[in-house]
Structures are given as C-alpha cells and as structure tokens.
Design goal:
The chain has helices spanning 13-21, 53-60, 71-95, 104-110, 135-144, 158-174, 192-197, 204-211, 231-240, 263-266, 273-287, 337-345, 375-382, and strands spanning 26-31, 66-68, 99-102, 115-118, 129-130, 182-188, 227-230, 305-315, 321-331, 353-357. It is an alpha/beta fold. The protein folds into 2 domains: 6-73 and 158-262, Rossmann fold (3-Layer(aba) Sandwich); 85-156 and 264-382, Fe-only Hydrogenase (Larger Subunit), Chain L, domain 3 (3-Layer(aba) Sandwich). The strands form 3 sheets. Strands 2-1-6-7 form a 4-stranded parallel beta sheet, sandwiched between helices. Strands 5-10-9-8 form a 4-stranded mixed beta sheet, with helices on one face. α2 links the parallel β1 and β2. α3 packs across α6 and α6 packs parallel to α8 (204-211). The protein is globular and about 60 Å long. Bound molecules: iron/sulfur cluster. Iron/sulfur cluster (SF4) is lined by residues 134-136, 189-190, 192-193, 357-359, 362-363, 366. Iron/sulfur cluster is lined by residues 134-136, 189-190, 192-193, 357-359, 362-363, 366.
Length: 393
C-alpha cells in the first residue's frame, strides 16, 4: 500500500559498486544539499558538520572514472526555471500582462538575449503556485488532491534536472564522453527520490540525444538517473572501500563547472530554502533591483507545520507600485496541508506561493539521513538563523 512502492526499493550499493569497477563506465555522483551536513555524522563527526571538499574527495577516491555533478548546481537550475515560471504567473494573474518583454537591461542582468514571452499559457496555471521539488508531496498530491495539479509547478526537481543535464550538457561539453557511458548516481537524504528516479516519464536525456543524432538509432532506452543512494547508503559504500571522508582534504583541486554553485542552491536542503531562493529571483526580476537583504529570515526555520510571510515587492511594470507577495511554507505534510489544499480549491487561499516539503524540517530530516541527529543541528550547518530573529515570524 505504500505510495512510494517501498517494498520494491532495495539498496543499490552493489549495483553502483559493480559500475565503479567497469572501466567503460563514467560514474557520476550527485550529492544533494542536505547530504553534506549529515555525512560526517556517519563517521563520528559532529551533527551538522559541513563537508563539501572532503565529501567530493572521498567520492573521487572510489574510482578513476568518477565525476561529481553537485545537486546544488541542479537546484540553481531549478530556481532559474521555477523562478521564471512563477514570475510569469504573477505578471499574468496580478499585473495583467499577456506578453512580457524582457528588455535589454534585464536580459543583460540575467545573462540572456532580450526576448518577448507569451504569457497566455498561464491561463491554465493559476495562483497560488505550489512547489514541485519534493516527490513525497507530489505523490501525496497525485493520490489525495489531484484537482490541485494545475497550481503545481511544471519544473522538475533538482534530481530530475541533474539527470538529463549530466547526460547531455556535462557529458558532451564538459567531460567529452559518450553519454551512453554515463551512469548517474544521486546521493539523497530521501527514500522517495528512489521512487521518483524510477518513474517511466524521466527519460528525457535519451529522447533528446536520439532526436538530435547524438547516439545511434538502435540505442536501448536509458533513464535520466540510474541509481539513488541515500546518505546512509553512501556512507556504507565509502566504509566498504575503507574511505573516511573526515580524513580527506577539504581543498577541491581544479573544480569542474559541474562542481560550482550558489548559496541559493545550497539552501534547498531545508524547509523554506526553495522559497527563499525563488523570492530572491522574483524580487530582482519584478522590481529590477536587488532586494534590501538577500536573507529572507521569516521563511527559514525548523518550526513544524507552516510559516507565513508577506514580502512587499515594488513592481517595475506597475510603475513601482508595491505588490504584497503572500508566501506559505509547509513541512511535515500531515500538519496543515489538507486545509491549505482545501482553501486553494475553494478559492479562499490568500497565498501566491506555497512551498511543500514532506519531511518535518525539509530534506535535512529526510528518511535517508543518519538516524542519530536531530534536524536543528543540520540546519545550523546549512542554513544559519541569527538568534535574535528566531525561527518563525
Ligand atoms: Fe525527500 Fe523529505 Fe526532502 Fe521531500 S522533504 S524531497 S520526501 S527528503
């Protein structure tokens, strides 16, 4: 009866180990944001101890053909896509635009060419906007609240953005290897990511490569993500190979483009992080200015249940008139989600943006993390909140 088919989920450590021994396979490890603040604990380190370089170097020691593609970078890619999606919805439903001309100045700031975006698609995608990066929430929505689907972001999760990016852009342009040799292994705090990776719709690298003649016609289909290891699985794989990340150097030698990311991607690892990253982008694009502060404390924190915030944004296309963006952050689905969904469906919801993370505290407390710690320690490592601010408004 488990919605994630947990009974079919087996650890993939043995399969990954076999691939590491195959000289014709390039094994790509993709660690999620929350893994780097939990892995140390498996080796006797402190709860919340941050290991980025040590983690990369430990993974690379597993084989000669190992590459890293940090999921933090994929989270940055997610925010580009989901942030733009949300901004389009605000411009259509709040500002009343049918087309959005991204002028030269904004295009330059975003690093793109000036473009006009047709916003008519937003007619079928109303506000409030629900996030889509947590497969636990997505499966809950599919089973218990499918009517809310038009409100849910069409952007894939960082794991599923990583998969095709690694087998197309990174394989072809960064590592210069045959994409058929790339074996993608995500390292996740999450057991439902195993289910997400196995969904049959996630074969977009295969489809793209085939359509564009980058792989032979008769190549059998392959998934975007080949294997998912939890943080505990990864620790076990390292132990089996006699590798202790805490004994590795912290310095990353010659980082590749797949190992570089921003703080916006890093904070995806905890409840409120996706929202904060998206709000930074929405503020910048809608107002044409940097926000007064990049830290948006009211959406951060460990509080189970919901957190709310109102973010005033002076909208350039409204002549600087302020739009009060109403934000809601939900974690631990059983607490408030049914009521929030009910209000969205009956039209009484006051929110424009709703982030949902299935686990209390978000991914730092996911089902694949070490079992000894409590999320507050991990959150301090990943996502500090000044004492005077507290963890909720
Ligand atoms: Fe997975 Fe939990 Fe994070 Fe959702 S909140 S992606 S279920 S670890």
């Amino acid at each position: 009866n488990c919605p994630f088919q947990a009974i079919e989920q087996m650890s993939q450590i043995d399969e990954v180990s076999a691939r590491l021994k195959d000289p014709n396979t390039v094994v790509v490890f993709a660690p999620a944001p929350a893994v780097r603040v939990a892995l140390a604990e498996e080796f006797g380190g402190k709860t919340g101890e941050l290991t980025v370089g040590r983690m990369y170097n430990a993974f690379k020691k597993l084989g000669n053909n190992v590459k890293i593609y940090d999921i933090n970078l994929a989270a940055d890619q997610t925010i580009w896509e989901e942030g733009m999606e949300f901004i389009c919805k605000v411009l259509y439903h709040v500002v009343g635009l049918k087309k959005w001309e991204i002028d030269e100045e904004m295009a330059k700031a975003l690093g793109i060419e000036p473009v006009t975006i047709n916003l008519e698609w937003c007619e079928h995608h109303p506000l409030p906007h629900f996030t889509s990066c947590c497969p636990g929430w997505i499966r809950w929505m599919e089973l218990y609240a499918p009517a809310v689907r038009p409100h849910v972001s069409g952007t894939k999760s960082p794991q599923q953005i990583f998969g095709p990016s690694a087998k197309t852009w990174a394989a072809l342009d960064v590592w210069k290897v045959d994409p058929r040799k790339v074996y993608n292994v995500t390292v996740m705090p999450c057991t439902s990511k195993i289910f997400e990776a196995s969904r049959p719709e996630f074969k977009s690298a295969y489809e793209y490569l085939k359509e564009n003649g980058k792989i032979p016609e008769d190549t059998p289909p392959f998934p975007d993500v080949d294997a998912v290891l939890t943080t505990r699985d990864m620790a076990e794989l390292l132990r089996r190979n006699g590798i202790n990340p805490l004994e590795m150097p912290e310095k990353i030698e010659n980082p590749e483009p797949t190992e570089i990311y921003t703080g916006g991607g890093t904070i995806f690892g905890t409840s409120g992080g996706v929202t904060e990253a998206a709000l930074r982008m929405a503020y910048f694009v809608l107002s044409g200015e940097e926000p007064p502060k990049w830290d948006i404390y009211p959406v951060r924190g460990y509080t189970t249940g919901i957190r709310e915030a109102v973010i005033p944004i002076p909208v350039k296309l409204l002549g600087g008139k302020t739009f009060d963006l109403q934000v809601c952050v939900v974690n631990g689905n059983r607490n408030h989600l049914p009521q929030i969904v009910k209000e969205v469906l009956d039209g009484s919801s006051k929110y424009h943006w709703i982030e949902v993370m299935n686990c209390p505290g978000g991914c730092v407390d996911g089902g694949g993390q070490p079992v000894n710690g409590m999320g507050t320690g991990w959150i301090d490592g990943l996502f500090p909140i000044p004492k005077e601010v507290g963890n909720s408004i």
